[in-house]
Amino acid sequence: MKKKSHFLKLTFILCVFLSPLQLLAQEDIGDLFKAGPEDATKLVNAYINPLFKGLGVGLNSGWTNTAKAKKPLRFDLRFTATAAFVPNSDQAYDVNTLGLKNIRAVDKFKSVGPTAFGDQTDGPLMELYDSSFPNPNPAQFNLPQGTGVNFVPSPQVQLTIGLLKHT
Questions:
Q1: What does the pLDDT look like over 38-49, one tens digit per residue?
Q2: Are 138 and 109 in contact (CB under 8 A)?
Q3: Of the four, 62, 76, 152, 162, which is 20 to 30 A from 31 by CA?
Q4: Residue 58 has pLDDT above 70, yes or no
Q5: Of 93, 100, 125, 92, residue with least CA distance to 40
Q6: Residue 42 and residue 99: Cα distance in Å, rounded?
Q7: Per-residue pLDDT tens digits for 98-108
Q8: What tens digit of pLDDT does each residue of 7-26 get?
Q9: Which pTM value belongs to this model?
Q10: Bridge partners of 23?
Q11: What are phi and psi of 159, to 5 degrees?
């Protein structure tokens, strides 16, 4: 139950943050989920990992304060935005290193795909397989493209309220 909940949260986050982007054709998404939630979760995590790192960095930067205390019940509301740049090492991932059970790259030498913040090139061609029941014509699909954007924007809202005098 916990794994299913974690998988649903990741899927929701992926849909919310990347919905305007062209990720996979509809039949490709179905093939991905046929492989099972464990493999799908590993692929989604590898694809959107820079998003979580970038949001973490972005949300932990840009916070400001003044040394002067606010008068009681006075407040200060600030809207800011920061951006975290995605390093080259986080712009691609190798599916051969993910430990997938039911999905594999058609060509094991072409197994590197872009993350969400990688190049706008197609990911590797993947196929569904079952070692106990080989299929001569396995379902195949390409992993999604990157956005070509190498930074993660992070909007912030900061609310400061004066409580007691000199605090």
A1: 888 898 889 988
A2: no
A3: 152
A4: yes
A5: 100
A6: 8
A7: 998 888 899 98
A8: 555 565 555 455 544 444 43
A9: 0.67
A10: none
A11: -120, 125
Give the DSSP letter of residue 146.
-
Both tokens assigned to 136: 């001569």
158: part of which helix (H) or strand (E)? strand 151-161
Q: Quick one: tokens of 149?
A: 């954007």
Any idea of the CA torsion for 29, 30, 34, 39, to the nearest 10 degrees?
10
Model pLDDT for residues 134-149, shown as the tens digit of each residue: 777 788 888 888 888 8
Q: Which two tokens stand for residue 103?
A: 């999905």
Question: What was the pLDDT predicted at 22?
Answer: 45
> Does residue 111 contact residue 105 with C-beta atoms inside 8 Å?
yes
Q: Is 113 exposed, middle or buried (0-12, 13-18, 19+ CB in 10 A)?
A: buried
* pLDDT value at residue 155: 84
Which residues on neighbouring strands pair with residue 110, listed in sequence order? none
Amino acid present at 132: S
* One-character DSSP codes across 73-140: T-EEEEEEEEEEEPPGGGSEEEGGGTT-SSEEESSTTS-EEE-TTS-SS---EEEE--TTS--SS--E
